[in-house]
Amino acid sequence: xxxxxxxxxxxxxxxxxxxxxxxxxxxxxxxxxxxxxxxxxxxxxxxxxxxxxxxxxxxxxxxxxxxxxxxxxxxxxxxxxxxxxxxxxxxxxxxxxxxxxxxxxxxxxxxxxxxxxxxxxxxxxxxxxxxxxxx
Length: 135
What we know:
This protein has helices at residues 16-36, 79-87, 107-120; strands at residues 48-49, 60-64, 70-72, 75-77, 96-101, 124-127, 130-131.
């Protein structure tokens, strides 16, 4: 009687778990990359200023169109909805907010957005403007 301590089997590579891991990594990196892309906002004709300062990217960019429409990340909001969104952000006092209003926008629409942000408790509010050419 011949005893075999080791049986030799042909190695088999399991590819399905490797595909699962690779797809998981792909989805993870896509989600992380999408969160790193800054919100550019809408294409607006911003007012011009000689005293512009480049600020770091804000947490929320509020776009005010000529007709007074308020847009945040391509969602149309009312002033009350904007206030609720800023309040839901966690600590509104630490929320970085930039208001980008078209230069043809009535000043009252801009003030409406400012009031909504201040009502929510936001204190770090910036105003978007174009630097003067040649500065």
